[in-house]
Amino acid sequence: MGMMFCRGCAKEIHETAPTCPHCGAVQGHVPVFNNVVPQPSIEDSGSAKFHWTSLTSLITGLVVTLMAISVPEQWDKDTVVGVVMFGLVPILFAVISLIQKRLGRWMAITGLVLGICALLAAIGNGS
Predict the structure, then answer these.
(1) Claim: this prediction has a pTM higher than 0.70
(2) Does residue 43 form part of some domain?
(3) Residue 57, H or E segment
(4) What is the pLDDT of residue 45?
(5) Distance CA 37, CA 3 (A)
(6) Interatomic CA distance for residues 97 and 60, integer angstroms
(7) Residue 45 in domain
């Protein structure tokens, strides 16, 4: 039997100890077969509440919508092209997130709607 380090306080403890005698941290024992320790996947971690594509869609959707409503009445061609191109970003990330069925669907849907609103504003002011 060997020794290992505590997950809570990093002090050396016996490898069969269910908790650390120093800090009381529970030690999650993982069975080791042929010296191979299975690595936890991202889905197993439970710490992520949503996927980054959903959050990116929401943030860029908010930014492009604020940009679209804060621009003066008359838009020049460069402004219209910029808002259209930047408006496609939240739509793209939202579609990717929704197709892959990631967590945070509400963020992806909100980013999609905001991106479409910005595109409509750009098209309306461009004509």
Answers:
(1) no
(2) no
(3) helix 52-70
(4) 47
(5) 16
(6) 14
(7) no
